[in-house]
Amino acid sequence: MSNPKARTMTRYEGRAAVVDCLDTKLNEELAIQAWGDELTNVLEALPPRTDRLIVNFQNVQFMSSSALRVLITLNTKTKVAKIALFLCSINPNIMEVFKITRLDTIFKIRPTEVEAINSQI
Q1: Taking Cα atoms as reference points, which of 68, 61, 78, 104 lies closest to residue 16?
Q2: How many angstroms separate the CA atoms of 48 and 36, rounded?
Q3: Tell me, what's the pLDDT at 50?
Q4: How far apart are the C-alpha atoms of 25 and 47, rounded to whole Å?
Q5: What does the pLDDT look like over 62-114, one tens digit per residue?
Q6: CA distance 120 to 91
Q7: Which residue among 7, 48, 63, 106 has its CA within the 20 to 30 Å range from the CA of 90?
Q8: Secondary structure (H, E, C), the chain
């Protein structure tokens, strides 16, 4: 039996946990569920010194509404855990969806990872 494909890669930059999305498309239900599970697992395993979780979308070219729901759920979980959630490096076409749905007013979105790392909470 083979290991399931990893959907994310996590690394630490100072007090930030940076989660790189490895998929270029977040549009298949099983893949999105696995992606959401990985994000939740990262959140639950954060070291005590971590004060922010950054999801880097640099590789993502397409995202379905199911993936947006995963992010909304993650946002709720990070608030409960008192961890700041930042999204960064979002493709312009995907950013339009965030604006149309007004999710850009709910999430802390930064153009680059460096800006997310250095942002005030």
Answers
A1: 78
A2: 22
A3: 97
A4: 29
A5: 999 999 999 999 999 999 999 999 999 999 999 999 999 999 999 999 999 99
A6: 23
A7: 48
A8: CCCCCCCEEEEEECCEEEEEECCCEECCHHHHHHHHHHHHHHHHCCCCCCCEEEEECCCCCEECHHHHHHHHHHHHHHHHHCCEEEEECCCHHHHHHHHHCCHHHCCEEECCHHHHHHCCC
Distance CA 95, CA 45 (A): 29
Half-sphere exposure of 50 (CA within 13 A, CB side): 22
pLDDT attached to residue 4: 73
| Residue reference for tokens 């959140």 | 43
β-pairing, 84-88 with 52-56?
Answer: parallel
Statement: residue 23 has pLDDT above 80: yes
The structure tokens 């959401």 sit at 36
